[in-house]
Amino acid sequence: METRIEKIKQQLQSQGYKLTPQREATVRVLLENEQDHLSAEDVFMLVKDKAPEIGLATVYRTLELLSELHVLEKMNFGDGVARYDLRDDNSRHHHHHLICVQCGAVDEIMEDWLGPFEERLEQEFYFQVLDHRLDFQGICYRCSDRGKPDSLNKSH
Amino acid sequence: METRIEKIKQQLQSQGYKLTPQREATVRVLLENEQDHLSAEDVFMLVKDKAPEIGLATVYRTLELLSELHVLEKMNFGDGVARYDLRDDNSRHHHHHLICVQCGAVDEIMEDWLGPFEERLEQEFYFQVLDHRLDFQGICYRCSDRGKPDSLNKSH
DNA sequence: TTCCCTGCAAAGGTTTTGCAATTAA
DNA sequence: TTAATTGCAAAACCTTTGCAGGGAA
């Protein structure tokens, strides 16, 4: 945790930005809720416990800045608000998502299934892939009363 | 074209809705720009030629209604506006998209690459797949000065 | 000092809603 | 007839921006 904050601090400083108390509080909220795909409003509510004086605009600016630094992934699941996801700094692409249409849960699959297709895209479609996004909508294990599958614990 | 409108008319009527002139004009615009992923504003501009008196709210309401009937797919590519895509009524899932980060073009891949993964999801992740979404971001053939690949003409 | 950063309030852009009038079935 | 539908304007939302004050190097 601390080392991850330290790393983010360095990323900020290397671009001339500062890790202010507000930014640090925001990052901590994101780290503590890493699985959750929080919206800006969600982050704002949570970060107010740590830094009650913070303004919503600051949260938006921080999330925007961290997205530009590729610390975060800004995402849109179609419910009208942007959501943010901490990025594994070693993985080139984002995770795949399992979105439950019943309870709204979003689980992540940490494997990358798309490598072979990206090769095909370059060769057959003349398309140079920089990133991808793969989401599945359906019914999650909670809503069909099955235990948590091992597969979802693999990488976290 | 006419038979597709007739079919949509029947879908509407079976749920107690009417195919008004405004709705028909909107559907025609969507059919004529099937490859284009139009925003509500785009549709509004185009539909005004056919029905100049139409209001933007009516376009929004029509798009929302058609999405509920699964005639359209409401989609969000992250630029702050919803975009709409006619749905093949015989295909269970949406298309895959190639989104160019340079010129903004969105091409479609008509094949479904994900069947084998969906089986894995049900078995290993206890996730019952209803739909999916696969988008690639990168540089399209136009922006890298290559001809249009045959692969993009396959199914249309 | 100097530049970055903040909170607040105002503005921006997209989408939804209330309402009285109109219209398709 | 009558329930659905429309256009307009206002409202609701999420997000961004302008600005004056504050703070770290």
Automatic annotation (TrEMBL), chains A, B:
**Mind listing the UniProt keywords for this protein, alphabetically?**
DNA-binding, Iron, Metal-binding, Repressor, Transcription, Transcription regulation, Zinc
SUPFAM superfamilies tied to this protein: Winged helix' DNA-binding domain (SSF46785)
* Annotated GO biological process: negative regulation of DNA-templated transcription; regulation of secondary metabolite biosynthetic process
| Cofactor: binding comment | Binds 1 Mn(2+) or Fe(2+) ion per subunit.
One MF term in the entry's GO annotations:
DNA-binding transcription factor activity
Q: Which residues bind Zn(2+)?
A: C100, C103, C140, C143
At the top level, the lineage of the source is Bacteria
Give binding positions for Fe cation: H94, H132
Pfam families xref list: FUR (PF01475)
Keyword check for Coiled coil, yes or no.
Answer: no
UniProt keyword DNA-binding, yes or no: yes
Q: Which cofactor does it need?
A: Mn(2+); Fe(2+); Zn(2+)
The record's annotation in CDD domains points to: Fur_like
Assigned protein family = Belongs to the Fur family.
Name of the protein: Fur family transcriptional regulator
